[in-house]
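Figure 3 (text version): structure tokens given as input.
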């Protein structure tokens, strides 16, 4: 959403604030604009989500011994409850995953003047791609304790390579290719769980379907209980692939009003359903509310791949999932307008999925 009048003044990267290069904050080193979390989060230890690990090789290559059916049952339970799962045996080499993580770390460790060559503020105006903060819509907006670098990676002919740092360029291209193969393997299995044609979801992705890569950097925070690394939200994507730093947690998912830590497991990827999938499955599969909380001592990095349909496409619940006993729970929405709504609602700390419900 564009505001009338000028954009709020650009912010310093959180990495600079955390390093103490620009003075202390208002609350134990945290500037007041970042203070969001309150005592209702409680001091009790956060439980860990029972998120399954799906063996992609077994799932996508049916075996006579029933291993595929077993993996499919675990996948169904995860999609209907948590809306996310971990995947192993996914075909992406550990060496490539490590290279992407190290390239991301190298980028964020560059001097600020180097990173600002890829800024998302152009002529004082925010653009989605590039390095910096998420869009700040108002002076009252509560800010997240994180910096990011956001890049369109598909369609390939729409890449803005001027925003691709040399340290990321080659590994990101290879990683994108591998992740897309993984996504293409998963979608038919998800469709079959809904008793839809195996190609139903895959056929939704035209040549104009978009994929964005987001590199997140969460600096240590002196008062982590006061802030969000990333405020609670759902993804507006169809499906999201996440590679997290296995050395530090912080991702949490909301279920039945309670927050759970999402477990880290070495060499796995996290698959997170987005709102587009929830709408098309008529709510059978869940797009989970999730957030990131920072650590007091350690930095955290993640690399996220958002897969979305053609912005001009309209979606609604699949017709085969609707009958007199199962009415449509979501309206028809246009992808472009829905994603624009995401950024507006995210800035307000609200969920855009609520606007699509009947």
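Below: residues designed for each position.
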């Amino acid at each position: 959403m564009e505001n009338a009048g000028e954009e709020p003044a650009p912010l310093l990267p959180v990495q600079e604030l955390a390093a103490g290069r620009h003075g202390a904050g208002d609350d134990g080193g945290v500037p007041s604009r970042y203070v969001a979390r309150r005592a209702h989060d409680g001091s009790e230890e956060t439980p860990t989500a029972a998120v399954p690990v799906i063996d992609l090789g077994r799932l996508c290559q049916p075996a006579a011994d029933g291993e595929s059916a077993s993996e499919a049952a675990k996948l169904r339970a995860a999609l209907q409850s948590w809306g996310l799962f971990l995947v192993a045996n996914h075909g992406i080499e550990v060496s490539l995953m490590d290279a992407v993580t190290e390239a991301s770390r190298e980028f964020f460790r560059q001097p600020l003047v180097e990173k600002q060559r890829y800024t998302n503020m152009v002529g004082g105006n925010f653009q989605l791609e590039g390095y910096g903060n998420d869009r700040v819509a108002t002076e009252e907006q509560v800010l997240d304790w994180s910096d990011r670098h956001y890049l369109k990676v598909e369609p390939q002919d729409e890449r803005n390579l001027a925003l691709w740092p040399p340290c990321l360029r080659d590994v990101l291209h290879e990683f994108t290719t591998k992740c897309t193969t993984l996504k293409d393997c998963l979608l038919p299995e998800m469709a079959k769980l809904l008793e839809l044609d195996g190609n139903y979801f895959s056929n939704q992705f035209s040549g104009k379907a978009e994929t964005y890569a987001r590199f997140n950097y969460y600096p240590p925070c002196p008062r982590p209980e006061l802030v969000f690394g990333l405020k609670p939200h759902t993804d507006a994507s169809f499906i999201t692939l996440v590679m997290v730093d296995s050395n530090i947690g912080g991702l949490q998912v909301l279920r039945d009003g309670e927050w759970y830590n999402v477990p880290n497991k070495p060499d796995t990827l996290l698959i997170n359903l987005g709102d587009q999938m929830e709408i098309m499955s008529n709510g059978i599969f869940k797009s989970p509310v999730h957030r990131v909380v920072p650590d007091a001592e350690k930095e955290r990095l993640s690399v996220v791949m958002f897969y979305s349909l053609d912005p001009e496409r309209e979606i609604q619940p699949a017709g085969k999932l609707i009958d007199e006993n199962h009415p449509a729970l979501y309206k028809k929405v246009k992808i472009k307008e829905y994603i624009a709504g995401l950024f507006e609602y995210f800035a307000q700390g609200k969920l855009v999925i609520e606007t699509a419900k009947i």
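The chain has one domain: 90-252+268-356.
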